Amino acid sequence: MRYEQWTNMALNNEAISPDDALCILEGTDIDLLRLVTAAGDVRMKHFGRRVQLHQINNIKNGFCPEDCGYCGQSKISCAPVKRYRTKSEDDIVAEAHQAKKNGVFRYCMAASGRGPSPKEAQQLAHVLRRIRDEVGIRTCLSAGLVSDEQAEMFKEAGLDRLNHNLNTSESHTAKIVTTHTYQDRVNTLKAAKKAGIDNCSGMICGMGESNEDIIEVAFNLRKMEVPSIPINFLLPIPGNRLQNFHQLSPSRCLRILCFFRFVNPKAEIRIAGGREYHLRGMQSLALYPANSLFIEGYLVTKGETLESTYQFIHDAGFEVEGVDNKKPDLNEGHIHGDKNILNPKTAFVGNET
Ligand code: SF4
């Protein structure tokens, strides 16, 4: 097995071959620990032992006209998700302050829907300006499809990064969603990049995709030079169209994370939705290929608490980036959005992160 060769190619930013990609994802003689170590060597070069914590604020939940089969906020989902309109500006800013106190590297706001209306875009720009001026924390916004003009407005308001996941390959997309296309997603990423906003774009694994689909997404993100790649692992919750998909195991998730690290060596690789449920006791190993994760849950599901996340990072010999690595003051309260509806053991993240 060519573990060292994969490491060296990634360190030189050379693309691995399709055959090697398949071997990493499905080779029967892969030694998982050697694979994780090889991917970890690449991570160490670019990020050392630092782990970036991101925190999501689900600022608008549900009421979405789109039909993404994995999402509890979709019009076609019967998942018991509490729906609410956009939170007040003061609440969103207050939660940004709390995220900063929690030691998070980036505050990620997610709003359900196909994309912001002109009025919603103005409101988002206004709150982004307040966060820049009053809080001073890195920001990411996930608000659906975004036009060139809206991206420029968000850039002017101080947005660092815009999230829109490719989610899956172009050919597999039509099996997951019919109300928008893969190209719509690519166009949003292009609009952000054109406006000078960094792209954040990743995948949801476990939606019936083939290894070839995963390979296509990883190489498309490489081609687009996406600096931030969240990898979600589907939680098939009752009520969602993809509720019967049970295709992941901890070792499968680790292989996918290692593969993305080899193909996108310099990118932030983020363990996103489904981390706790699918990686289970192997979460610490995932810190070798990945250098980032979310704290305190996702869009409509709870995750591990802030304290236990800090604990497992430290126990694994890693450190939280940007803080002095003391545990945060847990008496001050954390932000949760409205994640009290679905249990992470049975629930899936509402939409992509
Ligand atoms: S993923 Fe986004 S666009 Fe798709 S249904 Fe959910 S909220 Fe709507």
Q: Any key phrases for this structure?
A:
single chain; alpha/beta; TIM Barrel; ten-stranded parallel beta sheet; 13 helices; binds iron/sulfur cluster
Written account of the structure:
It is a single chain. The protein has 353 residues and is of the alpha/beta class. The chain has a single domain, classed as Aldolase class I (TIM Barrel, Alpha-Beta Barrel), CATH 3.20.20.70. The protein is 40% helix and 13% strand. It has 13 helices and ten strands. Strands 1, 2, 3, 4, 5, 6, 7, 8, 9 and 10 form a ten-stranded parallel β-sheet that branches. Strand 6, helix 9 and strand 7 form a beta-alpha-beta unit. The longest helix has 18 residues. The C terminus is likely disordered. Iron/sulfur cluster (SF4) binds next to loops.
Would you spell out the secondary-structure blueprint of this structure?
Blueprint (H helix, E strand, L loop, with lengths): L2 H9 L6 H9 L5 H16 L2 E11 L28 H13 L4 E6 L6 H18 L2 E5 L5 H9 L4 E3 L6 H7 L5 H13 L3 E3 L2 E3 L5 H13 L4 E6 L16 H14 L4 E4 L3 H5 L3 H4 L5 E4 L10 H10 L3 E2 L33
Parallel strand pairs: 1-2, 1-9, 1-10, 2-3, 3-4, 4-5, 6-7, 7-8, 8-9
One letter per element, helices H and strands E, the order comes to HHHEHEHEHEHHEEHEHEHHEHE
The major beta sheet can be summarized as: 10 strands, parallel
Residue share in β-strands: 5-15%
Coarse shape? globular
Structural domain tally: 1
Number of β-strand runs: 10
**Mean of residue pLDDT values:** 91
CATH topology: TIM Barrel
> Which bin fits the share of residues in helices?
25-40%
Mind telling me the CATH superfamily name? Aldolase class I
Write down the Rg: 19 Å
Find the structural class using helix and strand composition: alpha/beta
The CATH first-level class comes to Alpha Beta
Kindly report how far apart the N and C termini lie. 34 Å
CATH architecture: Alpha-Beta Barrel
Low-confidence runs of at least 5 consecutive residues: 330-353
Cofactors, ions and other ligands in the entry: iron/sulfur cluster
Number of DSSP helical runs: 13
